[in-house]
Design brief:
heterodimer; A: about 170 residues; mainly alpha; AhpD-like; elongated; B: about 190 residues; 9 helices; about 5% strand; peroxidase (chain B); AhpD_core (chain B); Peroxidase-related enzyme (chain B); peroxidase activity (chain B)
């Protein structure tokens, strides 16, 4: 076996010998870098100024906003492994808290980028910087929040292909 | 009037982009994974602040938009322009509308789409691509097998459908990044 199972295969139950798995081998580089980007954003070896628990919390929140139960369950389990119960509760609470603390700020930023990124302004980015996030951290957080909508639509499209094949 | 345009739209970042002259080896390596024409764009230099995610995401973007065979490039551009319209990203719409026009030599088709919206007259194949792009973008949770039927009736192969899904998904990401990390600067109006 050349490869380990990727997140899409795990969440959708794509069997290795199924037509969809075979089709995806024609786009091996997309499969590889979808998984690579996910790992780099959610499970990086060097998380920098944004902790692994915060990353899992942001991913969980966007999966909930996108109403993707499979992705949400995956990120929830990941956050539980990090063992931060307060963050787990906050990430799943809507609307996001109004406070000026770091967690509230990050959760509100996630809501904005996921749902209405056109409303983002310089003041929103400056507020993250004022909480000590470096330009690298701000890009990482934004990439992560914007990546879950990619995963959601990738999974929805692959599932439609599965359904089509089995009908 | 629609605010979407095929004219060149600027983009101003809200955090300092990396300076290509003083970039770290890791940042330069990440930029190398991105599409060659865009490696030194302000947008990619802004993303280079986090080289780990840019390297993977840039390689992903490159494969989604430029992988050989499968969905013709012009149709990937059509899909990503349609997604960008649904998401209200003026910058991304302008870039991908222009590429569609360059590849097809049919700027009038894209101009009509920008001016009149998705109800404008389109070939059956383009209509199927635009409508699927809009649906997967706006309501991914409602997508199911039968939504692929119009694409199949328009002649899309398995690989073409997969490429279309990748293109649409990629721009759920790109539009959000572009609108939050910076702002579109429209061309001066007449």
């Amino acid at each position: 076996m050349a490869d380990t199972e990727d997140l899409a295969e795990r969440l959708l139950g794509i069997a290795p010998d199924s037509p969809l798995a075979v089709l995806r081998t024609e786009r091996a580089s997309i499969r590889q870098h979808s998984e690579g980007a996910y790992r780099e954003l959610v499970l990086p070896a060097e998380p920098g100024g944004v902790s692994l628990a915060e990353r899992a919390a942001l991913a969980l929140r966007v999966a909930l906003i996108e109403r993707h139960e499979g992705l949400a369950a995956h990120f929830r389990a990941l956050l539980q492994q990090h063992g931060d119960a307060a963050l787990l509760a906050a990430a799943q609470h809507f609307p996001a808290p109004a406070g000026a603390d770091r967690t509230a700020l990050l959760l509100r930023y996630a809501d904005m980028v996921a749902v209405q990124p056109e409303c983002c302004g310089q003041e929103d980015i400056d507020a993250l910087a004022a909480q000590g996030l470096s330009p690298q951290d701000i890009v990482a957080v934004t990439q992560l929040i914007a990546f879950v909508p990619y995963q959601t639509r990738l999974l929805a499209g692959l599932r439609a292909l599965q359904e089509e094949a089995s009908s | 009037m629609s605010h979407f345009t095929m004219e060149t739209v600027g983009w101003e970042p809200r955090i300092p982009p990396v300076d290509a002259e003083t970039a770290t080896p890791q940042q330069l390596a990440a930029l190398e994974a991105c599409p060659p024409a865009q490696r030194r764009s302000t947008y990619f230099l802004t993303l280079a602040n986090d080289p780990g995610s840019l390297g993977e995401r840039g390689a992903l973007f490159n494969a989604v938009m430029y992988a050989p065979r499968g969905l013709p490039r012009a149709e990937r551009e059509l899909a990503t322009a349609a997604v960008s319209i649904v998401n209200g990203c003026i910058y991304c719409t302008s870039v991908h509308a222009r590429r569609f026009a360059e590849l097809t030599k049919e700027p009038e088709v894209m101009q009509r789409l920008l001016d009149e919206g998705f109800s404008t007259e389109l070939s059956p194949r383009r209509r199927a691509i635009v409508e699927f792009s809009a649906k997967l973008t706006a309501t991914p949770g409602e997508l199911s097998g039968p939504d692929l039927k119009p694409l199949r009736e328009a002649g899309l192969t398995d690989l073409e459908v997969l490429d279309l899904i990748h293109s649409i998904a990629m721009f759920a990401n790109a539009n959000r990044l572009m609108q939050s990390l910076g702002k579109s600067v429209p061309p001066p109006s007449e």
